[in-house]
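Let us work through a complete example step by step.
Step 1: write down the sequence.
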Amino acid sequence: MATREELMAIHEDLCNRARELSRRKNHDYSGGKDATHAFLNFIKCEELGLCKTETGVLVRISDKISRLNTLADSNLKYEVVDEKVLDTVLDIINYIVIFYAIHMERKEKESAGGFFLE
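Step 2: predict the structure and record it as tokens.
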């Protein structure tokens, strides 16, 4: 059984890995088009009139949770072997942070009388 100190070390390691992964993915998803807009690929669902940006992020989180559920079934043999539990956990951490940041940005803009997708 892990000690509290071991748990905190795991937490720190995962958060550091997630932050670095987020930095790299955010760079790649922007494709150099708009390096200042952190949510460029996430706002597409709202721009297309499909759903709020936050809902789009929640859908991605639910996909990752479904993936974790599948990966937890040790009796399955996987055809795609490059997506492991760690990769999925890091993605979930990052999507949660993105959700929170988008939510807070929307609240700030709405309280200032502005629009989110300006």
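Step 3: interpret the result. The two ends are 50 Å apart (CA to CA).
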